[in-house]
Amino acid sequence: MKKTPQEVWSEYQSGIDYHTQIDIYETVEMNQKFVNGDQWGGVLAPDIEKPVVNVLAPAVEWYNAMLVSDDIAISCDLDEVTTGNPVQDNANKLNNQAMESIVIKSIEDIFEQTKYKQKLRLFCRNASIDGGAYKHWWFNTKKNTDKEYKGCVDVEIIDNVNVIFGNPADTDEQAQPYIILAAKLPTDQVKEMAKKHATEIHEDWDDMTNLEEGARTQAKYTTVLTRFWKEDGIVWFCKSTQNVELKSPTSLGVKLYPISKMNWKTLKNAYQGVSKISEVIPNQIMINKAYMMMNEFTKKMAFPKIIYNKMLIEGWSNKVEALGVDGDPRDSVVSVTPTVSFNDQLLVYVDKLIAETKQTLGLQDVSLGNVNPENTSAIIALQKTAAQPLELQRLELYSSIEQDVRIIVELMATNYGVRPVQIETEQGGGQIMFDFADLSWEAFKMNVEVGQAYYWSNVTQVQTLDNMYRQGIIPNAITYLEQLPNGTVKNRDEIIKAVMAQQEMVQQQQMAQQPQVPKAPGLPVV
What we know:
Distance between the termini: 84 Å
Strand content: 15-25%
Order of helices and strands: HHHEHHEEEEHEEEEEEHEEHHHHEEEHHH
Number of strands: 16
Low-confidence stretches: 206-216
Helix content: 40-55%
Radius of gyration: 35 Å
């Protein structure tokens, strides 16, 4: 359904109103400032020092380190169809292996070209601070590959405040009636996109909303809205400013919205998430205030003050020099005020407040490495204990990556056409020309799994199989060979057949060597 630029802008304003109701703009701005150390903003107290004891930044760094430090691997399994015909089933098996190899290799190439794993760090950081983060995928026709083929699947990270869902109460992005992405682009660039309507483009400086006042800069920018919706199950999109259409409705030819998200914590009946940082900002403010008060006490009360008689001495100087007084110098001229001891209970309170705040954020001694494991089992146990507070976020990240894989496959099937690819099967590997249209979901059913790479490392799998075979857990060589990862051993099927033939030969020889038991006389032959 085609929408005018004014109608799209009205939907965008409705999304802004919703974001304002849930205070997402102020929350995101405050969280970002506090994590980056700007924790005294708006405090008018020029005569006092403003110490910052930032317990939020280490938490965010630890979150990101735990989520993205391990390499991520993807497993794609095609649904196998058994016909009962060994020749046809073997051909189907090899075809599935080739298709799986094509998908994995193509996705890995896209991850490398788009710097996907580096962008995941920003993605996870945004989610941990803002409460949520989004990825937008598209086919970039201006991007060259390492071959003569132009165009590649590309990705960008979108802030959660710039994403508007048509149904705010539904957390599923694929079930939305529409999704709007907002971006501020240089006004000159937008005028080039508008072509003959360039004179109708103006910068946001001339038409600022209350929410945009705080983002005003000297540069000239214009808000561009990209609206996605579905017609008959196919995704369409258009681009526009407040009054000008930049891109007419265009079909993407895919069934999935090219948008994936990750919420840090789910907010009930809302698509926007909640950050762990938000709930401990009052703790951070109190920690800073306590250190400020201790600092002011130290300056004003920890050192003695000199009191002198102004009737005898006109002025006091700390210089080492003789002082003249009016009257008997043996009279009391100067005295010193006693110092006041600092209440140690305040230090205990602050330390406990910091410890409780870290506990709330999931930071423990195990997480920060303030323990000394004595053996390998202890190291593994500590790793698992440290990772437990982030298991839900890790699963949310993996779910987002699984969605990315499905979006990538659709975009490749729609836009790539025929290109050379590298395949690996049990029979070996090589390069072939492949029509990516064969990856369409109608003809290509795939299960996607995402996990830490070392779990699915071929080397790790082979080592595990070796140990199981040596310990007798795997009963025979055939089972061992069947479980080896694809491509590990060339011509694996022929080796299995040779082992089976050898086992049959040994079995026949053993039967031939067994002594024949003579039949008892008079008994019938059975």
